[in-house]
Structures are given as structure tokens and as C-alpha cells.
Design a protein that fits this description.
This protein is an alpha+beta fold. It has ten helices and 23 strands. The strands form five sheets. Strands 11-13-9-8-23-21-16-19-18 form a nine-stranded mixed beta sheet, with no helix packed on it. It has a five-stranded antiparallel beta sheet with strand order 2-1-5-4-3. A four-stranded antiparallel beta sheet has the order 14-15-20-17. Helix 5 crosses helix 6. The chain starts with a helix and ends with a strand.
Amino acid sequence: FFCSILQNSERMVVIAAGIVNKQGKIILSRQFTDVSRIRIEGLLSAFPKLLGGGNGNKQCTFIETGSVRYVYQPVEDLLLVLVTTKNSNIVEDLATLRLMGQLIPEYVQTIDEASIAAQAFEVLFAFDEVVVCGHREHNTIEQIMTYLEMQSHEEEVAREEKRIQEKQAKDEARRRQMEITQKRREGGGYGGIGSHGMGGSAGGVGSGRGDSYEDPNSYAMPADDTPAPRFASVVDDTPKASAPSKLRTLGGMSLGKARKADISSKVLQEAGGLPAAAAAATSASPASTGASAPVAATSEGIQIRIDEKISATLNRDGGATNVDVRGDLFLTVTDAALASVRLLLGRVSDDFNFRTHPNVNKNLFTSDRVLAIKDNKPYPTHQALGILKWRLQNPGSVRAPISVTCWPGDSSATVEFELENLQATLKNVVIVIPLGGAPFAGAEPTTGAFHVDQGNVFWSIPVVDSGCSSGSMDVSLAAEATDASFFPMQVHFVANANIAGVSIAEVASTESGMPVRFGLEMTLSAEDYIVS
């Protein structure tokens, strides 16, 4: 007996509820049993045809077919339809239909296709409170609306705690801003004035402002495995032992007999014409251990350009994520007589993935770091040819060269920058601070200058190095603003260095093995350097 009752209850179910127009277009539908979408679409689309086939003149609110029963009622110009089994309780189904019809106006003010489609989720949620697994829940309209409001005491407590935390954070930011302002008034400053000596550590961008890069087109030829001027990209704050101090003067390149022999021996060794032992003895000569003077890059027959771009996403507390570095090496031959050359690179970082041009001898580059056209063919002339690309493959090994921290208040913010690597020299640093549409009242930087354009404050610092490694600026608004008003910030800068440590040890002729004078331009620039 009980099994019979259970089987009947399983058959007496509401299969689906839907709203359709008189042409059979389904506005929304909700199925309450395990039935496919195609089946429901077929049942609801066929209903208006059954209604117009003679049953529409009867004073009834249901239509039966061979397999299901349609219970319906008009809702303005639309039809609310229940699809049930034929064994379902018609009286209970009519009560369910009336309850659903009363719920629709509570969530849809103007009952038409567009309004119902716009409030579809609210209507479907209400239907779910009326019918569960095909059976009606005995709820009233007031109970259903209360359920859908989903008021939670725990949620209100969590929101209040969040509001208190935000207020405490704003108070802390205001206190920090006052401390910074007080320090500046007392003359504490940021970073102090550093020494501008002529010395410098190997591998740095320069220890004094402008010392290492008086001419952006100049190039100092390093020793065999000395990396190019670069940032200390590896995240390691342990001081490194500096090389013995040597006074280097800027001037023309000096090619003595020992240096010529050193270059020639390397080229001959690459071509297989010099034993390794002899090459090692030649490269160990005293002349090869010191760095030569830079070469002007204005009138040489071979011009080399190294372009590197760094992108990073900084959080407002100064931390950096998503650091990415990409670089390209371009070669331009302006003298056809010098087109047959090889480029010998210095030591590069293992944290980068390097790819050569398809016409470049890849095996020679992999084994000896030599860039040369396959079969010793000449380079094309009078065009900048990209022969080498690289990209950072270990983001954790490189840190952002400059960090920016923001301390927002109700109607002001303090923006602070700090140079993460004191060996670096950044030029033309610009920090773009959005105002979020709020009127600008004023700004007071500790270094550099600012101007306002199109709702943004542009804070410009000519040089950021060990002598000017940090600074701050107070930005005031004429109206209250949210913390998000000052974000995202953008940071722009350039430097005469590269993070991958790509350097040109020498350029030699593939025919004679003799060194060839060349010009070098090296640039690192910020791209998509964002503070969010």
C-alpha cells in the first residue's frame, strides 16, 4: 500500500513552468524534474497550437494531451503555463498556478517580454520556492518574498566588521601621511644626497648620476665574459665583492696588438683554425682582462641596438607581481663591405629564454654565443634586422626596479616611490596618478615636478639613482574621493641598461677575423608598468 502511494506521488508532479507568448515563443522556463531541454522546448512550443485548435473557446484552464497536461492562465498578453503529468492533482496544480501568477507582478512591474526577460532570475528563484522536485511547497507569498530577501544576521555582522576595518585602515593611512609630512618639515628628506664619484661596480648601471652614461650612444667593450651594464635582477640582497678599482676614462677605442691578437684568436677558434689551448693562452693576456673605452655610435658602418621592455603589476603596498621582461637585438649594416661579420656576445643570464632569427646559425649561438648568418652569408644592408629575441622565463628571479606605494585618505593621498636597486639609474621617470574625476586642489612633491592634464597628475623625476633613491608627493583634492580613485597608476622610465645582461664582446669579420668598429645603443623602458 505504501509503495503504491509513493509511486503515485512520483507520477503526480509538475514537470515544468514557463511563460510563453501566443505565437509559441518561450520567454522563460523552469523544469523541476530530470527532463531534457529539447523536450521542454517542444512541449511549450506546441502549447499555443493546442490552445488555438478549438480548446481556446472552452471555459477551462487546462488542456490534456496523450502524455501531459497543460494548466495555464493569461498574464496580460502572455501565458503562464504549468506542464504536469496526467495523474497530477488538478486542484493543487491550479493553486500552484495562481500562486505563481501572483508572484510575477511582485518582481516585474510591466509584464511584457522585455521586462520578464530582464527579471528572469528573480522570477525563476520565486518559482523554485513554490515547486521543489515537482511537488508544491506550502508557502505563502509573504514567506517566499522573505526567503528571497536572504537577510542574514551573520552577513550584517561581517559587513559591519569590514566597515570598521576600512575605517581603521583610513585612519592609519592618515596617521602615516601626517608622519611623512612632519618628517619632511623637519628636514629629514628621502634618501639624501649621494656621492657622485667616478668609480662604479661592474655590472651596475652607474653609481653616480650620469657618470656611466654621459653619451647614450657610447659603448664600453667589456672583457670576455663581463656582462653588459644591467640591473642586479636576481632577488638577492647580499652585497657582492667589487672588482679592484680601476680608473677608466671615456674616449676613443684603443686597439693594441694584444687586443687584436685576442679578438683574432677567438674568431679563428670559432672557425676551427686555432687550437683551444692556444686560444686560451692568447685570451689570458693582460690586455684582455681590462675593459676598453667606449666607441661612438654615430658614424660606424655597423650599428647595434638592444631594446628591452619590462612590464610589472605592483600592488598599492609596493609589492610586485607579474614581472615580465622582453628584449630584442637589432643589427643595421650601413657599409656593404662590413656585411660579413660575426657578433660574439658576453655572458647572459640563465633566467631568460633566447631565440635567434631563422637565418642565424642557431647551433653556433647555442655553443659559443656567436651570432652569424648561416653559411657565412652577409647581412642585408640598410635595414634594421632583428636577429635575437629573449624573454624572462623565471619571473621570481627578477624584481621590479622601482616600487610605488600609495597612502590614500578621504580627500588626499601620499604617493611614495623607492628605487629597489641602488646600482640602477632610471631616467625620465613619470608616475601618472588618476584623480577619479575629483577636482584637483594641489600637490607638493619632495623631488621632481608635476603637472595636471585630463584628470591625471603627472609626477616627473628626471633621474632616480642612489643619490635620489626615494621621494614622495602629497596630492590634495577639492572633494572627497574613494581609495579606488587614485588607481590604477602608471609608471614610465628609461635606462641605458638591460636586465638580461646581453652585451657585445666583439664584432669580427668572417673573412679576415679582424675586429670591426661598431656603434651600440642600449635602452630599457617600462611598458605596462601598473600600480593597481
